[in-house]
Amino acid sequence: MSKFEIGVYTLADIGPNPLTGTTISAEERTKEIIEAAKLADDAGLDIFGVGEHHRLDYAVSSPAVLLAAVAMVTKKIRLTSTTSVLSTLDPVRLFEDFAQLDLISGGRAEILAGRGAFIESFPLFGYDLNDYNELFEEHLELLQLLNEKEIVSWEGKFRSALVNAQIAPRPVQKEIPLWIGVGGTYESALRAGRLGVGMALAILGGDPMRFKFLVDGYYEAAKEAGHAKDNLKIGVTGHTYIAETIEQARDEFFPYYANYWTYVNKQRGMGFRITKEGFEGMTAPNSALFVGGPNEIIEKILHQHELFGHQRFLAQVDIGGVPFRDIERTIELLATKVAPVVRKELNK
To answer: Which SUPFAM superfamilies match (predicted)?
Structure first.
């Protein structure tokens, strides 16, 4: 059985602090992300991830660049995108950037590819939104080929053909681990299984049982494609806030969590707001939201492991304008109180 991995990730949203009304700069946000990664590494967590966006209310458009900076101040923690928007990225550029990161970090790079929550990258990079699914499929096919071979010949629909192209540099690792991010789409889970890559489930709320069909579909598609189950990996990602007690966590986190969904829903053209009563239900024991004291977080991770049998948990700890001191505390409690218990239970 593979070791159960625990880590943290950020999408680098730049939101106002709902209690003070102040908003930090992209420069400050970037420095905080690098400091959070160093703290996670020093505390013994396994993974640190950074997402990609192309909006002024997010601080990171190039995960590989920021992760290269993180690589220079960390020693062991693995470094992944969460996610790379593969539909609108050139697969050659993406692979070569992460191969370079792999060299800088001594073999710690991973790629988590997805289709993204926003669509502004399509006009930004000259792609047609009508090609949304076809682009992802083609770019993913090419990315896998680049990962396997040093010299590539390939022809597709959306980019120029490659004829005996040298793909350089090559990473330290034989191949860069590749994951696909899956929200709630069954077809995406089947694709990840069919290709034999890791599947990262974004479980942001509700009863986690409703995601079980994605896991079942992933394994079934992988089996039909001839992939050994021992080579497959599932990760769970979710919003996380840890304090000494669940009452403290709920009281402190609610303003930031409500703030986060207020501006994210506004970005998407929706006006939905979260109430305190609704938030109480979202943090109940049978809900997927990882808010509470260490014991509640441990119980939720272990419960989800019973459902999914996953090998990785990644906590998004910095949404909605949460002050850095609270981000630090969540990372520290995750590493010192939660991770040792979960590892002891699951790494038997």
So the answer is: Bacterial luciferase-like (SSF51679)
Number of domains in the chain: 1
pLDDT band at 271 (very low <50, low <70, confident <90, very high): low
Looking up tokens 């690098």, which residue turns up? 34
As a whole number of Å, the end-to-end CA separation of the chain is 9
Beta partners for 109? 79
Looking up residue 340, the CATH number of its domain turns out to be: 3.20.20.30
Q: DSSP per residue over 62-101, as a string? A: -HHHHHHHHHTT-SS-EEEES-EEGGGS-HHHHHHHHHHH
Structure tokens at 57: 């209310």
User: Cα(148)–Cα(64) distance, rounded to whole angstroms?
Assistant: 20
Question: What is the rounded CA–CA span in Å between residue 14 and residue 64?
Answer: 19
Which amino acid is located at 135 in the chain? L
Taken as a whole, the chain contains a residue count of 348
Cα 94 to chain center, whole Å? Answer: 16
| Beta strand ranges found along 228-341 (DSSP E) | 234-242, 290-292, 312-316
Can you give the pLDDT at residue 116? 79
Neighbours of 228 (CB within 10 A): 9
* Greatest Cα pair distance in the chain: 61
- Residue 267: the pLDDT is 76
Domain that holds residue 227: 5-346
